[in-house]
């Protein structure tokens, strides 16, 4: 078969007419690539041909050669592109860099890190971190070798690696990179350290944040205003407000001026703890320093005051400063009203929000739907869901969980499971909360066998149950009298390293008391204490109620006395349980005395309390009638 070629002189004329660049190596390569594919394979590609193709941006040629590029050829080309890192990045984007060995990939990252923008470097680092089985130490060491090949003194590449790990939420790996940098004598930038501190704060690993901050100080890495803002936030999160305030003074000692973010962090910290006067003190201080409070200043105060029913005070203060509520402000107001059952006002804020040109967010709708279910307004919740769907808004996992849990709480298993199926069809993965809600409704409908099946499915799919899911299933079996299965679940919790809590033992105690096994329930309270779990009101009230139903008021009062000795005050449930026991024994005199004690403790008796006393006194009335006769 004859070869199909285009004469190189003609190719030269075509390139001139089309305005594309031309070189002898490109022409030679083009002549080769236009041969019939039935001929022999391409001859070895030289580094000159490849480099010339890259420099002239002949990316179609580069892509054509990509499958035949060796690590050595790519590495040589990259080293020749050190002064033009933009071309190096384009080059690696036109070949499948992942096909090449680890060393070549690291060299590409090192060359691209010379770009003024860090984004391309982050892109390549994320690919390296996510796709390779090599450890972070391996990646770090290989990047050190690549840096040495470039003969550069800059260590910014390793700062990029730390920040990349932070972006991927791999905080332990980021910290490991930090210490590897220090081992090599590289000084991590303060901004890099701030990325680690910020991620530790987001992950609520405040203790680790302090350890890392101490190492920063020990290795003489200077803190800046962002470092102090993060650590003040850490202190606020830990509830150490006095120390957070002291940190403000330390900043000024170091000559670092607080920013509006510093003050807003303190205002938020104090507001979340209900220390509104302290929050206002910082607002006054920031004003004296020339800072104008903004919505980030007032929204945390609004959140707390909304819970206290005093939102109007904050809204008035915001208005005086010319601050217009944003979507966050409205969502705070809507949540506050919904939690109190004031749905009319909550929907009023929703309408006002829309009039201001702000579209309700998922949080807005989820808050309203939750409020409607809590107020048993199922139809209104369904109307709101239709409204969301008509707007073309796809439900998110939170919405599905609120709906599924709402229907489960109202015993509507059919609708709950229909939504579960829809959730799966939409590609939204159910969470532990989803499955716990479904297990709850099955147990409530006495379908414990089906609840067990669903539980086994969850475990079989690799999801580790939490203590709430275990307690829900256990409570279902206790309520159905399946105590053997309930205790088997306690054993499974130990096998799965799920720590039981007071709710776990209260469920088991209630189940045993329901079967009249009061001594076993009492022994279970002892086991509870041995595990370091403190019994609560419910624990003691469960035992008191159990003994009282049996009419064993002697032991019921003994448990009450133990409860008092531990500092627990009797509740309405405690007194009503004791009164029922006295009623069963028709001990009217003691019932009257207990009723007086109950009132003196500031507990208002209810209908059940009075009914028990009346029943207990009926024996006294009967004896009086007999004496009159």
Automatic annotation (TrEMBL):
InterPro entries: PPR_rpt (IPR002885), TPR-like_helical_dom_sf (IPR011990). PROSITE patterns: PPR (PS51375). Keywords: Repeat. The keyword Repeat applies. The keyword Repeat applies. PPR repeats lie at residues 154-188, 224-258, 259-293, 326-360, 361-395, 396-430, 431-465, 466-500, 501-535, 536-570, 571-605. Signal peptide: none annotated. It holds the Pfam family PPR_2. Belongs to the PPR family. P subfamily. This is Pentatricopeptide repeat-containing protein. It comes from Cardamine amara subsp. amara.
